[in-house]
Design brief:
Blueprint: H1 2-9, H2 11-32, H3 34-53
């Protein structure tokens, strides 16, 4: 019974590991799709700039 209670108390470490894994996956996706993300952001900024001139 004490082992079950100890496991429940250590739940914070599990959530920290999950956050680290999520960050690693996100960084991997950014590296994988870097060119596509750069072109997407560039085109969005160009549209914003062109449409702001018409105001």
């Amino acid at each position: 019974m004490n082992e079950v209670r100890a496991f429940i108390r250590e739940e914070d470490a599990i959530s920290t590991l999950e956050i680290i894994l999520i960050i690693v996956v996100l960084i991997g996706l950014v590296i994988l799709f870097k060119n596509q993300l750069t072109s997407l952001v560039s085109s969005i900024l160009q549209k914003i700039t062109s449409q702001s001139n018409s105001i």
